[in-house]
C-alpha cells in the first residue's frame, strides 16, 4: 500500500504522534517531565553562565582602577554554573534518549501487535518491504518529534519566558522585545518551515519506503534477477530512486537553512534592540553597565536552544507521514476476529451455510456445510485458486467468515480469544516459514517447553531425524535465513514437525507433502495421521493419498464443496 496525499489520515502530526504515544507518555509521565526539566536546567545554566560572565568581566574592567574588588564570588559562580551545565547536559542526554528509545520500543511493539491482528486479506495489501519500513524506518522517524520539537519548544518558551521577565525587571521594553522575538523564533519561524517542508517530507517518506521495498524485493528475488539478466535494470532502478532521495533531502535541508538564517536575523535584531534600549536606560542611570552587558550576553544563550527546532520543523513532514503510515495499521478495514467465549478442549467442528472469501459479493466458496467429529479425518481437493486455503483459514478463525459460523464444541470460533483459539488449532500453511536460527529454535515454536526427547520424536514422525543426526551440531545446527541450507522437502517436514509438537486438538494441513516424492509422501502422511490419534485432521491437497486415510473426502466444484466419499 503506497502512501499518498489522498490516503494520509487527516490531522496534525502532533495529533497523530500523541495518538501513538499517549498511553506510554501518561504511564511514564514523571520520566518525561523530568527529562524536560533537566533540559530546562541546562538552558538556565547556559544562559546564566553567559550573563554572569558578561557582568563579571564588565564589572572587573570598570573596577580596575579601584583598590579592591571581590573576585571570588563571581568567579565561583562562573565555575559553579559551568559544572552545572556540564552535569545537566549529560543527564539531559541520558533522560532524553531514554524517553526516545522507550517510545520507539513502545510504538514498534504496538505496530507489531497490530500486524499480528490483521487477517491474511488485510496483510495482502502491503508489500513485505513496506511492512519492514513501518516497523523500522517510520518508527525511527518519530524520534525527531520529541528530541527536536517537544523538548526544544518547551525549554525555549519556558526559559525564554523566565529570562524575558528577568530582563523586563531591569529594562521593561527590553523584556517585551525579547519575549516577542522568542515567540517569532521558537514558534512562528518553525511553523512556517514546517508548512513549507510538509509536502516534501511526505514525498521523502514515500520514496524511502519505496526504496526499502525495492531493495527487499530485489534481494529476495536475487536468483531470478541474475538468471533473467535483469541485474542492470535493477541497479538502474535503485540508482534512480537514490538520486530522487538525495534531491528531496537537499530541498528539505535548504528549507531548514533558510529557517536558521531567519532565526539568526532575529538574534541580531534582539541584540540591537537590547543595546539600544540599554543605552537609554544606562544614560538615565536606571541600569548599571555590568548588568546591561550581562543581560545582552545572556540573551545570546537563549538562541542556542533554538537550533534543533529548524531540523525538527523541516523533518516534520517526514514524521507526519511516518505517523500516518503507522496509524493506518490501527484503522485497518479488518482485524482477526476475537471474543471472550472459551473453547472446549475437544469438540465437533461444524459449519452451516458458510461463505468464505474476501468480498461478500464475490465469495470463493458458499454454502459450505461440514461436520467433523473430534478425531475425524477430512480431505479437501480442488484446483489452485479455488478457495481451499481460504477455507482452512476461515475454519480456524484467521480469516473472518463472509456469511455463517464455524462452531467448535458448539462455540462460535470467531467469538473465542485468539490466544486460546491457536492453542486448540494448529495450521501448516502452504507458505509456512522456516525462521533464521537453529533447528531447535524452529521446532520449539510449536512447543516452547518441549524436551529433547519430544523434539527427536517429532523429527522421527516426519522422517527427518536421520538427517538431523547427520549434522555436526544436531538440533543446534544453524539452518540460515528461510532455511536456505535445507531442501524444499526438508523445510516442509520441519514445519510439519512444529505441528506435531503443538498441543492442539485440531490440525489444519495445507499441502503437507509438497516437495516430496510419492513413496515418501505416502509414508509421511500415514505416520502423521497415526500420531494424530484423537486430534482432528483437516487437509487440503492436490496429491494422491493412500486409501483409507480419510473418512471424509470433499471436492471443490465451482463455488461449492461437494462430498465424494
- Radius of gyration over all CA atoms, rounded: 34 Å
Silhouette: elongated
Order of helices and strands: HHHHHHHHHHHHEEEHEEHEHHHHEHEEE
Main beta sheet: 6 strands, mixed
Kindly describe this structure.
The chain is of the alpha/beta class and 565 residues long. The chain has two domains: 13-330, ABC transporter type 1, transmembrane domain (ABC transporter transmembrane region fold); 349-563, Rossmann fold, CATH 3.40.50.300. It has 19 helices and ten strands. It has helices at residues 13-27, 29-62, 72-116, 120-123, 128-141, 143-170, 172-220, 222-227, 231-283, 289-304, 307-314, 316-330, 388-395, 418-424, 439-444, 452-461, 465-469, 488-501, 518-532, and strands spanning 349-356, 365-372, 377-381, 403-408, 411-412, 425-428, 506-510, 536-540, 552-557, 560-563. Strands 6-7-8-3-9-10 form a six-stranded mixed sheet, sandwiched between helices. β7, α19 and β8 form a beta-alpha-beta unit. α2 runs antiparallel to α10 (289-304) and α7 packs antiparallel against α9. It is elongated and about 110 Å long. 39% of the residues are buried. Residues 1-11 have low confidence and may be disordered.
Amino acid at each position: 500500500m503506497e502512501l499518498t496525499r489522498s490516503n494520509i489520515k487527516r490531522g496534525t502530526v502532533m495529533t497523530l504522534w500523541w495518538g501513538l504515544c499517549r498511553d506510554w507518555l501518561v504511564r511514564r509521565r514523571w520520566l518525561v517531565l523530568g527529562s524536560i526539566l533537566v533540559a530546562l536546567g541546562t538552558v538556565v545554566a547556559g544562559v546564566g553562565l553567559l550573563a554572569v560572565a558578561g557582568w563579571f568581566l564588565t564589572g572587573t574592567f570598570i573596577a580596575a582602577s579601584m583598590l579592591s574588588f571581590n573576585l571570588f564570588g563571581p568567579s565561583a559562580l562562573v565555575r559553579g554554573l559551568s559544572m552545572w551545565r556540564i552535569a545537566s547536559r549529560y543527564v539531559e542526554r541520558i533522560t532524553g534518549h531514554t524517553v526516545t528509545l522507550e517510545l520507539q520500543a513502545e510504538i514498534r511493539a504496538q505496530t507489531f501487535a497490530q500486524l499480528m491482528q490483521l487477517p491474511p486479506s488485510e496483510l495482502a495489501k502491503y508489500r513485505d518491504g513496506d511492512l519492514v519500513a513501518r516497523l523500522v524506518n517510520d518508527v525511527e522517524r518519530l524520534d525527531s518529534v520529541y528530541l527536536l520539537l517537544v523538548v526544544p519548544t518547551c525549554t525555549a518558551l519556558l526559559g525564554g519566558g523566565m529570562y524575558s521577565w528577568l530582563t523586563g525587571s531591569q529594562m521593561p521594553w527590553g523584556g517585551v522585545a525579547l519575549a516577542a522575538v522568542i515567540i517569532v523564533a521558537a514558534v512562528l519561524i518553525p511553523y512556517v518551515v514546517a508548512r513549507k517542508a510538509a509536502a516534501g517530507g511526505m514525498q521523502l517518506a514515500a520514496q524511502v519506503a519505496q526504496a526499502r521495498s525495492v531493495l527487499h524485493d530485489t534481494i529476495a528475488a536475487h536468483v531470478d534477477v541474475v538468471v533473467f539478466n535483469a541485474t542492470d535494470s535493477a541497479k538502474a532502478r535503485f540508482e534512480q530512486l537514490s538520486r530522487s532521495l538525495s534531491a528531496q533531502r537537499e530541498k528539505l535541508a535548504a528549507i531548514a537553512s533558510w529557517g536558521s538564517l531567519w532565526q539568526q536575523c532575529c538574534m541580531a535584531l534582539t541584540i540591537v534592540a537590547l543595546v539600544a534600549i540599554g543605552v537609554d536606560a544606562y544614560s538615565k542611570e536606571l541600569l548599571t553597565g555590568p548588568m546591561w552587558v550581562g543581560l545582552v550576553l545572556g540573551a545570546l544563550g537563549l538562541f542556542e536552544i533554538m537550533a534543533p527546532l529548524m531540523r525538527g520543523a523541516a523533518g516534520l513532514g517526514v514524521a507526519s507521514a511516518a505517523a500516518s503510515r503507522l496509524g493506518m495499521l490501527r484503522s485497518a478495514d479488518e482485524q482477526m476476529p476475537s471474543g471472550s467465549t472459551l473453547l472446549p478442549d475437544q469438540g465437533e467442528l461444524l459449519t452451516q451455510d458458510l461463505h468464505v472469501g474476501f468480498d461478500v459479493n464475490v465469495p470463493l466458496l458458499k454454502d459450505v456445510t461440514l461436520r467433523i467429529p473430534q478425531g475425524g479425518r477430512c480431505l479437501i481437493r480442488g484446483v489452485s485458486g479455488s478457495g481451499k486455503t481460504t477455507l482452512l483459514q476461515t475454519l480456524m478463525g484467521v480469516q473472518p467468515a463472509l456469511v455463517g459460523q464455524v462452531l467448535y464444541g458448539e462455540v462460535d470460533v470467531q467469538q473465542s480469544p485468539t490466544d486460546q483459539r491457536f492453542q486448540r488449532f494448529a495450521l501448516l500453511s502452504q507458505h509456512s516459514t522456516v525462521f533464521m536460527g537453529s533447528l531447535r529454535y524452529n521446532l520449539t515454536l510449536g512447543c516452547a517447553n518441549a524436551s529433547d526427547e519430544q523434539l527427536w520424536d517429532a523429527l522421527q514422525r516426519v522422517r527427518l531425524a536421520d538427517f538431523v543426526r547427520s549434522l555436526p551440531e544436531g538440533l543446534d545446527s544453524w539452518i540460515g535465513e528461510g532455511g536456505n541450507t535445507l531442501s524444499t522437502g526438508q523445510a516442509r517436514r520441519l514445519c510439519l514437525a512444529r505441528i506435531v509438537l503443538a498441543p492442539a486438538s485440531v490440525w489444519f494441513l495445507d499441502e503437507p507433502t509438497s516437495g516430496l516424492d510419492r513413496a515418501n509422501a505416502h509414508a509421511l502422511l500415514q505416520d502423521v495421521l497415526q500420531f494424530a490419534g484423537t486430534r482432528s485432521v483437516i487437509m487440503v491437497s492436490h496429491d494422491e493419498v493412500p486409501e483409507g486415510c480419510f473418512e471424509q473426502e470433499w471436492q471443490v466444484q465451482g463455488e461449492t464443496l461437494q462430498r465424494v466419499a
